[in-house]
Amino acid sequence: MDRRTFLQGLGALPLAAALPGLISGPALAQAAWPTRSATMIVPFPPGGQADLAARPMANALTTILGQTVVVENKGGAGGAIGNSMAAKAAPDGYTMLMTLSSLAVLPEAARLAGRQPSYEMSQLQPIARVLADPTVLAVPASAPWKNVAELVADAKANPGKIQYGSSGLYGTTHVSMAMFTTAAKIDLLHVPYQGGGPSLTALVSGEVQAIASAPGPLKPFLDKVRVLACFGAQRAPAFPNAPTFQELGYKDVEFYIWAGLFLPVGVPQPVQDKLGAAAKAAIESPDVVRILENAGSPPAYMDAAQFSAFVAADSARLVTAVKAIGKVE
Q1: In terms of residue numbers, what domain contains 69?
Q2: CATH code at 159?
């Protein structure tokens, strides 16, 4: 089954009728919200990690909250367009954002390029973390490189000739690949796309020769890609034969793609609490767990307080990495 068919099939996801009971009680009585449908912005095209997290979650939230939660893909500028739309939305709880770790990178990247950021982290409130996967380095199954050493040797012999795709300038997969190329002292040609899905399509079709990706989106294409290494501190369970970059001697090459749910700052606390409780029930529901695990990206839930602390720490690390990389075209 291809990934698009898989994602379309999520629309038929059933949830146990008893799920709303998981979030009953005083927290729900504090707010009438929602009384109409809500939008979950995904700042990338269909097919990437944020989209993978958003669709089963939106479907589950629809059942739990009793109002439709519609996923809207607003790709472009490495995620900045959709992130900005969510950050500037009315703080009424009817616009949510399912985004990636590049959320913290993009404002700093804009400043490096001499531009005014289209949004700031301070405009968004973390509600729940859904996924947290280490990035992996993938090449086409037909590529001549069987390991990272062979890729590096070829890149050094042919600087600027090997193309790699990304989710956009300073997107999650650009920053992780820039970490690798900087550490390996190689020059690869960067080809930015409007999201992880299009960059994966480009890899499978042969437009580019390498990408960084979360494990989940690669799963439908196991016969068409080869994973050479994992950016995490431990090997990815979905690709146990792929060594970590740290195992290969690249001690500073470590990167994770997390996906999380946010609201614009200013949403009333009772609404935040109700959505947070609904998100917890959704993430823990057997159907959502099954879908995410089958996609190779098991849930990695954090509540609002835990996720806020995690985002602050991870953002500081990522901003430091972007500043070290510098302006990258």
Answers
A1: 3-133+257-325
A2: 3.40.190.10
128 and 10 co-located in one domain: yes
> Hey, which bits of the chain come out as E strands?
38-42, 69-73, 95-100, 124-134, 136-140, 163-166, 189-192, 210-213, 225-230, 256-264
Same domain for 310 and 272, yes or no, is yes
Of the candidates 52, 170, 184, 164, the one whose C-alpha atom is nearest the C-alpha of residue 111 is 170
- Do 193 and 226 have their domain in common? yes
Q: What dihedral angle (degrees, nearest 10) is formed by the CA atoms of 102, 104, 105, 106? A: 90
Looking at the DSSP bridge assignments, the partners of residue 95 are 39
CA pair distance 286, 281, nearest whole angstrom: 10
Say whether both 111 and 163 belong to one domain: no
pLDDT, tens digit, 9 for 90 and up, residues 135-189? 999 999 999 999 999 999 999 999 999 999 998 888 778 889 988 998 999 999 9
DSSP letter assigned to residue 244: B
Within 10 angstroms of residue 77's Cβ, the number of other Cβ atoms is 20
Spatial neighbors of 133 by CB under 8 A, at least 6 apart, are 49, 214, 215, 216, 232, 236, 256, 257, 258, 297, 300
Decide the pairing of beta strands 256-264 and 95-100: antiparallel
Query: For residue 250, is it within any domain?
Result: no
Highest mean predicted confidence (pLDDT) among 20-29, 288-297, 317-326:
288-297
